[in-house]
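We treat protein structure as text, and this decision shapes the records that our systems exchange. Below, we set out a record of this kind in full and without editing:

***
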Amino acid sequence: MRDYVIALSGEAGQGLNTIGDMLALSLFRNGYCIFTDKSYHSRIRGGEYIYRIRVSDTPLFSMRQEFDLIVSLSKSTTLSQLEYFDHKTTLIFDSDSEHVTTEEAGFEMNVMNFPFKTIAKEAGEPRAQNVVALGAILALFKVKMEIPSQLIEEVFSGKDEVIKSNLEALERGYNLELSLEIPEIDANEHNYYLVNGTEGTGLGAIAAGCRFLAAYPMTPGTGVMNFLASRAEKYGIVVEQAEDEIAAVNMVIGGSFAGARSLVTTSGGGFALMQEGISLAAMTETPLVMVDAQRPAPATGLPTRTAQEDLLFVVHAGHGEFPKYVVAPRTPKDAFELTEKAFYIADKYQIPAIILLTESLVDSSATVEAPIHKEEFLQRFVVEGGDQYRRFEITENGVSPRAIPGGKAPVRVDSDEHDEEGYITENLEIRKMMVQKRMKKMEGLLGELTAPAKFNLDAPLILIGWGDSWGAIDEFATGRNDVGYVHYTEVFPIDPSIKQELEGKRLVSVEGNFTGQFASLLRSETGLNVEHIGRYDGRPVSANWIEKTLQEEGII
């Protein structure tokens, strides 16, 4: 595998997100495989903003920490990234701006400077310095200039003078010669898509037939809400920005009760406010689909950073005991497919289904194959019913017939315990039967699970992972004889039969948290002894980090 990591470094408000997207998309359309991520502070202007792009000839799903090339528009953000420099890193900066010196860095740096601002001013748009840099990088990778030219015309559509000056800045950037050696990375025609986790989740919801979304904005879950809102008219989706998270979850329960596939999106703090609603959905056996896009906590934490800290909270969400289904996608493709499945499972078993994303996944774009849409996931499991209809009928599999209010069947529900017809009861025998009925669904749920990803289980050391840590774990383990892995996307319930395959191995979980939450969950379900290494500084897990940490802990 050959790869090259490019970083655009500056401050929020300098247009780095727009230019980063253009750079990534131009490289992708030229035939390269791309993985991107972003590091930024939770402010509108100023503060660190780093847009990283990993270019390769095969799809990758994690970021390599060390930069090969960093284009800096801000001295302060360059200083914050020095830990990711090595002897191969080249720093490019604007010759008209202040830059990091060797003395400040503490080591010799490979540096190049160009008058980006002056060139942009000569092109007629002083703010287009990043477009000049865009052209220089794309020329280095031999990307056809018509590709970024078309993107500029799309981004600035209707602003003819702006388009003209930016195209001039782009061409001048192409004419700059970056005398750098880069690996020969093949660029070929392909049938891949460049998708981020937000888009994957949103498209999965659309494909599943979602017709109502309610949410209160909370980074990083807001992206899914915005994605569906921007397509609401096209796909017949009602999107409501609620006054708070409590209102949002109850609106979605109402939408689902009325028969519409419905979704609520949030992050950990908002999810905390939704606990009573989750239990309401469980007691009324109303399908509920939720997105929790995780970020470092507790409290407000780090709103724009990544973590895997909500797993046990989500698995044990809501007061009382009831079944639920929890998924954590590995990739944007997984996000599509598991979102579809979450709607299906929620409908089939009339339970809460929770999609655990991370900031890293929702903000990262990856080169993926086309997601697979399954028509079976559109099944609604709704009956017409009649005069003898019993909403909470005790059945062999625990799933009662579900009718929609307003039809032929009288539909009675209540948040209190109830009998089969939906009437409130304090009969303790009925209470016992209703608890057993609801929990019986767990048996069916186990049969719905897809096996976790497995690699090299003959190795003495097996890494355990879940969610979007897969790309880093897979990259680290591939090519090694002494390491294998088991990696989960359906994280609850867990099939305990995995114990038979893992007994006698040294098991180490790799997670974006301090305590090893999935290790605890797997241990409680299987009795397996699972050690743990965790990253909890707000940065995503990478193959480099895994190797370094395992060495520091004396595990390898």
Residues 428-448 form the longest helix (21 residues).
